[in-house]
Amino acid sequence: MTTTIPNLPLLLKPIFLFLLFSLSFLLFLHSHSHHHRKTTFQSASPSNDLRIRPGYSSYSAYIERQLNKTLNPKLRKIWTTRDWERKVHVFADFFYSLKQRNLLFNDSKALSIGARVGQEVEALKRVGVSDSVGIDLVPYPPLVVKGDFHAQPFNNDTFDFEFSNVFDHALYPSMFVGEIQRTLKPGGVCVLHVSLSRRADKYSANDLFSVKPLLALFKDSELVEVRGVDGFGLDTEVVFRKMRKNII
Ligand SMILES: C[S@@+](CC[C@H](N)C(=O)[O-])C[C@H]1O[C@@H](n2cnc3c(N)ncnc32)[C@H](O)[C@@H]1O
Ligand SMILES: *[C@@H]1O[C@H](CO)[C@@H](O)[C@H](O)[C@H]1NC(C)=O
Ligand SMILES: *[C@@H]1O[C@H](CO)[C@@H](O)[C@H](O)[C@H]1NC(C)=O
Ligand SMILES: *[C@@H]1O[C@H](CO)[C@@H](O)[C@H](O)[C@H]1NC(C)=O
Questions:
Q1: Any stretches that span the bilayer, and where are they (predicted)?
Q2: What are the DSSP calls for the chain, one per residue?
């Protein structure tokens, strides 16, 4: 009796150690799978795949920041001279390809959003889409007229085709998309070039990590196509078609 009592804790020691080890292992597995579930859930969440950049204290601070680059006289000189032909060619190839896929036609009324000095509008005209115009905070007539993409200066149901490679500059993405859906005719096509894999420039107002947030925003449209492109740092072309009104 006197020998078995001190022996009991000795015998139990390995069992305790085993239990302790198993428990920590189970805890590790649990936290690991929980973490995994959480990250999977988060990457499937639209709001988390579209993040508005902090640091814009007001709408006028945002506009000022956008204008800071767009109004830069040295850059405007480069955009309209040295850069001009090269960029027009790249845009023309994109628009030619969209014509081949019956998403754009010579008689389409076309808008390019955030067109800056209008290389993309010139490209639309060159591939035969003569009724084309651009909007930007800074006009560059006659190709680009003044307009904020959060409040487009056009009536409802105006365009057959809208293109933009500046979604990342939208401080209010739901207004950016809402305005496209408002000004597109029913059945009209919207083509966005976005960056999913690398962060856009320091003038961006949001970061997009998947196409899912776009699917949620384009609620009056259907997704037509998603494909990889190589467009001035933008890697993905997303095509939507505004739904035709339901006949009740
Ligand atoms: C990265 S540049 C792209 C210019 C042009 N699309 C190109 O590829 O050469 C972004 C453009 O978006 C314009 N922009 C930014 N915020 C805007 C807004 N709220 N409404 C209209 N244009 C805006 C800027 O003025 C700038 O010209
Ligand atoms: C743009 O910002 C730079 C540096 O932040 C500043 O020096 C410059 O005056 C600004 N330009 C305009 C047109 O606001
Ligand atoms: C569209 O316009 C282009 C350029 O002007 C022209 O070459 C082409 O034949 C036109 N296509 C159609 C289908 O009219
Ligand atoms: C234009 O479209 C918007 C949004 O789709 C709608 O709320 C508004 O009533 C329309 N305006 C006119 C004049 O039809």
A1: 12-29
A2: -TTHHHHHHHHHHHHHHHHHHHHHHHHHHHHHHHHHHHHHHHHH-GGGGEEEPS---SHHHHHHHHHHHHT-HHHHHHHHTTTHHHHHHHHHHHHHHHHHTTS--TT--EEEET-TT-HHHHHHHHTT--SEEEEESS-BTTTEEE-BTTB-SS-SS-EEEEEES-GGG-SSHHHHHHHHHHHEEEEEEEEEEE-SSS---TT-SEEE-SSHHHHHH-TTEEEEEEEEEEETTEEEEEEEEEPPPP--
